[in-house]
Amino acid sequence: MPSSHDWINKPLGVVEAMFAQSNSNPEWEAKVLEYFKGQLKEKESHSWVPSLNDVPLHYLKPNSLVKFRCLVQDMFDPEFYMGVYETVDPSTKANVLRCGKYKDVTECGVDLNSRNTVTAERQTFYCVPIPGESPWAKEISFLSAARVVPSTSYVPSRQKRSYEEDDDDMDTQPQKQREPHTETPQIQPHGNGDSKRQETEAPSSQTTTPSDCSSHLDLNFPLPGERGPACLVKVYEGLDSFKLNDTLEIYGILSVNPVLTVLGEENMETPEEQRAHDPPASLVPRLHMLYARPLQHNNPLLPSAPTEDQSAFVSSFLVEMASVRAELLAYLTHVLLGDGLAAEYLLLHLISDVYTRRDVLPLGKFTLNLSGCPLNSYTERLYQIVQQLVPCSYRLSMSLHTMNSMRLVPKKDYVANRLVSGALQLARNTSLFLDETQLEQGQLDSSGVRNITALGNLISWQKVDYDFSYHQMEFPCNINVLVTSEGRSLLPSDCQVPLQPQVTPPNMEEYLTTIHMAQFTSQINKFRVYLSLARTLDYSISDEVTKAVEDDFVDMRKDDPQSVTAEDLHRMLVVARLLSLSLGQTTLSRDGWMRAKHIDMLRRSRTEQQKSLNGNEP
Amino acid sequence: MDRSKISTPTLRCFVETGPDHLCINVFSSVLPSEVDMSSPLMYGTPSSRVEGTPRSGVGGTPARQRPDLGSIRKAPQVDLHSEPPSADGAVASEQALGQKLVIWGTDVNVGTCKEKFQRFLQRFIDPTSNEDENAGLDLNEPLYMQKLEEISVVGEPVLNVNCSHVQSFDADLYRQLISYPQEVIPTFDMAVNELFFERFPDSILEHQIQVRPYNALKTRNMRSLNPEDIDQMITISGMVIRTSQLIPEMQEAFFQCQVCAFSTRVEVDRGRIAEPAVCRNCNTTHSLALIHNRSAFSDKQMIKVQESPDDMPAGQTPHTTIVYAHNDLVDKVQPGDRINITGIYRAVPMRENPRQSNVKSVYKTHIDVIHFRKTDEKRLHGLDEDSDQKLFTEERVQILKELASKPDVYDRLSSALAPSIYEHEDIKKGILLQLFGGTRKDFSQTGRGNFRAEVNILLCGDPGTSKSQLLQYVFNLVPRGQYTSGKGSSAVGLTAYVMKDPETKQLVLQTGALVLSDNGICCIDEFDKMSDSTRSVLHEVMEQQTLSIAKAGIICQLNARTSVLAAANPVESQWNPKKTTIENIQLPHTLLSRFDLIFLMLDPQDEAYDRRLAHHLVALYYQSEEQIEEEFLDMAVLKDYIAYARTYINPRLNEEASQALIEAYVDMRKIGSGRGMVSAYPRQLESLIRLAEAHAKVRFSDKVETIDVEEAKRLQREALKQSATDPRTGFVDISILTTGMSATARKRKEEVAQALKKMIQSKGKTPAMKYQQLFDDLRGQSEAAITKDMFEEALRALADEDYLTVTGKTVRLL
């Protein structure tokens, strides 16, 4: 049982020991980081660290090492703190040097006039759980964390939220029996009765979930209805390497000292600002960062770090790639009512990724517009299926009311001095599902127009202009946008596919549920791995194929210069790239190019058909 | 003198415990006296309030406390040479070595410092000064002496001192000023007052002169502030985002004994008042009560400043800093102002709470402001040479100059512009020249007003020819760019609107995109979709470079020296080569003639082009970042290059170039005169000059030479060839753009009118005819096809001649 690790339970002890040894040689700071990094490198060791995402705050031991999978939502101003300070012992009058790093509060009797005080700088990031994280992703990481008993008394027995069965639940049961024996930290869970009841009660009394506390404290989650802890992360090193909206896995020392809330008297800040920057530690814990790992993806089924075992994992999966693709395609075809072409495009869309930018032009984005979607909750079901496949997603129902009232673009609130989040503040590769079938006729007000413009900008340039009231600031993003609409969408898109249903099930709801139920969890998991993995593959075009593509383009133009433009070439190159990657091929072959051309032609003939159909309408 | 020696603990103890007479109060001249001396409140106050003034001339003028320099700290002087410090030794050395005394914790000797500063004031001359603050001063006389004279005349007792002047005069003094502002600035105050009252003994000032240094070169960027800057003087730039209400801050508390009415004053020390427990007069304990209206207060305001967007790295949020303004600096700035702040950076530990054993280990930081300088205020009047004070390091300038010396710099830069957009070389070159702009000329003395230096460009062409992408690129490149879409913007959004502040009920002028992009580029996409009323606003901006507003009682003229880069789509979905530009995009010719260059972005539909395009696009998708970077200039270099040229290069026409320009213009006029039409207007000459100047700027040349004129001519010709070719004749015809109609079309119109007249005359005396009948007759008679539009135009022309009138469906002869 790896529960007796001092570096997890008492990391501050480790830090202090190193500080004491150092004789104020500044190198000790680097050594501390080195040490924790080394500890975490060990196999499996990072899974021993309890995660704020999975374990309710009141079960975590204060001042222990915890991890947090999160998105940097806001960056506060840097602050100066006492890096080293001196205390005077009131009884012995002896001066003692102390280290203030990784702590919020000093020891008693600080000598404020001491010469040995070293002022240092750190910055606070406001971090929230990754917005729109799919329930299955949470579930899996939660269960895998539960397998290793964390150094807390907490026994995961969360209610199942998704309709997925998982017999892992059985594994967790025995641990509950062991609970009384494990060491209980400061906060005693109330009794040991019915665990389910306890789970639903505990958060409300401790107000860790925003569901009931949002009324008096806005935790500033980008998406409405999100749950989970927000965290103030104190960052000490490499401040420039972090950017807003980065997804990180942060390892740090948890600080929930209740003193934090009391201290904050008489300063010039407005009450709003104080509330935003110094929320009660029981609600928004402080985390002193020791190590942070940028996350390429948050799919718990994939090894997260680019290590050797990842490359091994990739090469083993590549063998299966083609077969998984075929299965997934079949599945999507069913979902899209038998439309194979639309399924193909949906698949390509799901693995698309902005892989680079040329000056202002994002390359690799592939916004798909599925037009001709059947009404009546079809899109909703479709979203649920997409959500089952990708680790991060959000469905924005574009009804007139939401467009007029919802805040999509983050806005700086100067009174509280924080960035008020909006629904477009999303982590990279989040699937944004825009449901235009919900839009009805009516008047868009000015905020509605702004929202539509923001969505248009997001699709065309993959950027969001955050509103800083006196000016705007551009933040690049990488969001997969899928638009479902009846006719052609009013938003721009890279590619429009009119849906041509081959089957018309009498009961749509039932039809889709059956399709979904027919898939085994293991199968779905394969799809999930496939989609996340295909995106990360490298891709290149050989000189020979380049030449062929060029020739092809010239020929196409020769036939009909009006119908093939530079934009079409852009799109076909993206399609070719995605098509190759979806088959696990890392270079474009001539075949791949022909296939891309072929499906694009099919699609175009379909849109033209649609156009002429519409033209005939009175 | 080294500082570490001074701050050894033993020495510190000595100063703290030393006898009172050792601590010379250096700041006796800055005693607090917020209250006017002549006010009745001052009656009965001890005369000691005006004691301690160095000279009799100063005596009459009350000193004013400087809360910006922090609470009046007892600043003892220490003798460096008396070691180990013993009480006796110090007393002796105080008299003997008066010159070597320094203020504790610093290496500042009051006497030397004062002397140095007086010398600076008396001698400093800056013949090359071009600051607007020095306007009207004789640059060859000592600058600050003239300013003192100004103070004696105007009576505003504030002396602003440019730190860079101090630095160039005496680097050591500058270093002391930056490192120990709290000690040095009061010394400066003393020095100035001595000097001033010596010179102008009779002048009456409200209070003693205060020195306000500005432009400390130490720090420019809020982000680079770090713990080392604490208690030093810094200058940062930023934007005001919030200001607080006025806060009265107590400077001196007035206590009165309830028993014997004995009164005493207690200075506020670091925000605390040490309330006297015992009355010194009657020895009663706890009898003293604070009398509020006899205590001295000073004004204080909290201002929040945010770093300007240009300063920050991509992907991070801007930092903010708290700034405290005191006394007359209160309410000097408004939210939204861009300012440079000079002040002292402070870090205050969270206050110790006696009830709590441990404290938060965080410091509160703020800046006590000494001097504000608005950077955008000047933009409202006159030129702003240094508002964008972008500093270039010497290496950077070297790189830029090296680049400029390359013969192909023009081509290099233009190809570095939006490399992802394929070809359109001339358009890119045009935009490049627009980015540089012409030379500013001021003819206001001769009544002409400002001469437009900005180049306006219109791109029209088929949808999907990456016009928007080009606009986006330019918008991202320039520091003060605005991007709007014609579809979504209204006239007020472009210009300015008046808004009522919900809190203060004050009318506030909110500026729109055009004003915001003053000195920058305003990119307007979908220009053709703009409503007429919105477009009409542009008329003034694009020629006069100003915006006049008369709304809700606010009448003003704002500067909008912005270049306009617009993109328009043809009215029909595709560009119709059979029609003129005007017909294709349906924009009024009055507006079109204000564009220097109008380019068509068309699909050339030619195989070689297709091949190159395909190659370019495919390369985009497989080349790695490094390859691309090797090929093209870095965007940052391009940005700096443009900023440098815009700031420092002001080319003027040389003789040859003027001749070449004249020739070019005459040539252009000649082309048309053969066919009886005007082929060039003075506007074309003006834009030719602008383009030539911009091209000289690209070369970093101070002179416009013939090659610049050649390129300007070529570019203008290219643009005209594209946009002003008469589709009927194939000739370039400038009147398409200036009058909206080609000369041939006009001739044709006249012919039709004449034919119609002839036809009516041939019909004999019929007073009224049917409209439709007449149209049919004319169609039957004429060989060429006559459209209804042409017919109506002909009728209108004849009506203008008073030959006939049209009423409804009948035509009447007169």
From TrEMBL, chain A:
Cellular compartment(s): Nucleus
Biological processes per GO annotation: DNA-templated DNA replication
CC annotations in GO: nucleus
Keyword hit for Nucleus: yes
Keywords of the record: Nucleus
Comp. bias regions, Polar residues: 201-214
Pfam hit, one: MCM_bind
Molecular function as annotated in GO: chromatin binding
Region (Disordered): 154-220
Superkingdom, natural source: Eukaryota
InterPro entries linked to this entry: MCM_complex-bd
UniProt similarity note: Belongs to the MCMBP family.
Name of the protein in its database record: Mini-chromosome maintenance complex-binding protein
Native species: Oncorhynchus tshawytscha
Lineage: Eukaryota, Metazoa, Chordata, Craniata, Vertebrata
Automatic annotation (TrEMBL), chain B:
Biological role: Acts as component of the MCM2-7 complex (MCM complex) which is the replicative helicase essential for 'once per cell cycle' DNA replication initiation and elongation in eukaryotic cells. The active ATPase sites in the MCM2-7 ring are formed through the interaction surfaces of two neighboring subunits such that a critical structure of a conserved arginine finger motif is provided in trans relative to the ATP-binding site of the Walker A box of the adjacent subunit. The six ATPase active sites, however, are likely to contribute differentially to the complex helicase activity.
Protein name per its UniProtKB record: DNA replication licensing factor MCM4
Record field: catalytic activity: ATP + H2O = ADP + phosphate + H(+)
Gene3D superfamilies, alphabetized: 2.20.28.10, mini-chromosome maintenance (MCM) complex, chain A, domain 1, Nucleic acid-binding proteins, P-loop containing nucleotide triphosphate hydrolases
MF GO annotations: ATP binding; hydrolase activity; single-stranded DNA binding; single-stranded DNA helicase activity
UniProt record similarity statement: Belongs to the MCM family.
Database matches in InterPro entries: AAA+_ATPase (IPR003593), MCM (IPR031327), MCM_4 (IPR008047), MCM_CS (IPR018525), MCM_dom (IPR001208), MCM_lid (IPR041562), MCM_N (IPR027925), MCM_OB (IPR033762)
Source organism (scientific name): Oncorhynchus tshawytscha (Chinook salmon)
